[in-house]
Design a protein that fits this description.
Elements (H helix, E strand, L loop, with lengths): L29 H15 L6 E5 L14 E4 L5 H11 L4 E7 H7 L1 H10 L4 E6 L35 H8 L3 E6 L3 H13 L4 E6 L12 H4 L1 E2 L8 H10 L4 E7 L15 H7 L3
Helix pairs in contact: 1-6, 3-4, 4-5, 5-8
Amino acid sequence: MDGTTGAVAVPAAKDFKSDYKPVWCPGCGDFSVLSSITKALAELGRPREEVAIISGIGCSSRIPAYTSVYGFHGVHGRALSLATGLKVARPDLTVIVAGGDGDGFSIGGNHFLHACRRNVDMTYLVMDNEVYGMTKGQASPTTAPDWTKSKLTPHGTGVSPFNPLGVALASGATFIARGFSGDPNGLARMILEAINHPGFAMVQVLSPCITYRPEQRDWKKMVRGAATERTNDQGRAARLLMTDDGFNIGVLYENPRPLYQPTLDGAAPMADLEAAFRV
């Protein structure tokens, strides 16, 4: 409250940032993604204690520490399962999951499939830079097969890259979008729309790693608005997502369906649960 007028203070993006300074490499796209998240939360207008950000392991998974909302930094690949449990137990919260292409599509790939299928009301932001940045530049699931700059795969992986949005569509995600960290205001609007969508919202964010993938500086010349409007037709979306080159930006598919939200009637009181685990 404003002590002079009694008016409710309007939150600003800076109110959702913590006092910890990000330790990402200079030029990392995740700086802009963090800015977009805080802008979206300011526009959303919910109190900080009503928002939770869950992450796994990786450069992008540091996001919870740099925000002032509730957060949980989980283990590798398990962010979606943690977030699902939280949202089912506390449906009143806004739950956001932050991660990267390695964390989300490799060790966390199975959780990704089933999060799309369940359709719990939460938002998944994947900062995709097509490399494992925190562990010094190995190829990730989304790395092109002919990328030869990694010492572990000097001749390229020879493996077709994972198509996250195509897999999300096939697995049942109800909101599918792709954004670019180089457009923080546009990305903020996209994140806000994903949060407000009733169901599992998947946003792939192209977020360059110029330390291990310096060629990704060119992404700002390659991204473009999708030539077609978003669709609720799964077949049409499949044709788009399976044939595009990965640089079409925008909300590409939206088709709400019933949420997964089991009833909590008869659940054990929190005090009883705490007593059961007391040592």
